[in-house]
Amino acid sequence: MQHDDRTGAGGAVRRRRRLGVMGGTFDPIHHGHLVAASEVADRFALDEVIFVPTGQPWQKLGKDVSSAEDRYLMTVIATASNPSFSVSRVDVDRHKDTYTVDTLRDLRRQHPDADLYFITGADALETILSWQNWEEMFELAKFVGVSRPGYELSNEHLAEHLADRPDALTLVEIPALAISSTDCRKRAGENRPVWYLVPDGVVQYISKRNLYRRDAERLDGAVTVSGPAPHQNSSQTQSSRTQNRENT
Ligand SMILES: Nc1ncnc2c1ncn2[C@@H]1O[C@H](COP(=O)(O)OP(=O)(O)OP(=O)(O)O)[C@@H](O)[C@H]1O
Ligand SMILES: O=C(O)c1ccc[n+]([C@@H]2O[C@H](COP(=O)([O-])O)[C@@H](O)[C@H]2O)c1
Prior knowledge:
Layout: E1 6-7, E2 13-14, E3 17-24, H1 31-43, E4 48-53, E5 64-65, H2 68-79, E6 85-87, H3 100-110, E7 114-121, H4 122-126, H5 134-140, E8 142-146, H6 156-159, E9 169-172, H7 181-189, H8 200-209, E10 223-224
GO molecular function: nucleotidyltransferase activity
InterPro entries: Cyt_trans-like, NadD/NMNAT, Rossmann-like_a/b/a_fold
Organism: Rhodococcus olei
C-alpha cells in the first residue's frame, strides 16, 4: 500500500484520503460497532468510515440471518447522524458469498486515491487466516484490530506472515462495550429492551419490522444461510425459509 503524500497542482502538499472500512453482518448494528469505528477514525485521522453490511456471510452457514436489505437499512439509520460515516452496498449487491477480499477490491476501484483501513474486532481477527485470499487482503488495506470484551486482542497468529510489514496490522484498545448482535437478537426475541444497546432508530426499525420475534410471523426476507461447503457459491441454495433463530 502506498502511504505517501502527493503534491497538488498549486504546489500544496495534499495527503491521501484515508477511508475506514467497517465490515459486519450488523444483525442488528449496535453501539459496539459505532464506537469501534469512531475510535479508529480518531486514532488514524480517517476522513470517512464506510460501513459495509455483508451480503451472504458464508461463515454464518446454518444460522438464521435477517435479509440483507433489513441489515443495510438498520446500518443506514444507525450511521445517518454522523457526517463522517457512510454505508456501502458493494457486498449486498454482489449476490454471492461475501469475501472481504472482494469488498476491498471493489472499494479500491471506487476510491483509487485513498488508503483503506479495514476495522475488525478481536474475535474476527482471531479467525482471519480462515478468510478467503487473506494474503491479498493485506495488499489492499491496512488492518486495525480493536479490543472487544471476552476476547484476547492478539496478532501472534499473524506475526510470521506480516513480519516484513510492521504497519500492516495495528491493535487498538477501545472503550469496552460488552454488546453483541446475538444478545440484541435474543433480547428482542424475548421482548426485553434493546434501548441504549442499539441506536434509537434501530430499536424502532426492529419493532416496526418485527425482527427477531419468535412468537410472531416474520414480515419477509429472512433467510437461513445454508448451502454447500464453505467457499462454494451458495447463491442458488439460499433458502427463503424462516426458522427460529438459535441465538448462538
Ligand atoms: N462490542 C464490540 N466491540 C468491538 N468490536 C465489535 C463489537 N461487536 C462487534 N464487533 C466487531 O464488529 C464487526 C462486525 O461484527 P458483527 O456484525 O458480526 O457483530 P457481532 O456482535 O459480533 O454479531 P454476532 O453476535 O451476531 O456474531 C466484527 O469485526 C466484530 O468483531
Ligand atoms: O473474507 C472472508 O472469507 C470473511 C470471512 C468471515 C468474515 N469476513 C468479514 O468479517 C467482517 C465481520 O464478519 P461477521 O461475520 O463477524 O459479521 C465482515 O466484513 C465479513 O465480510 C470475511
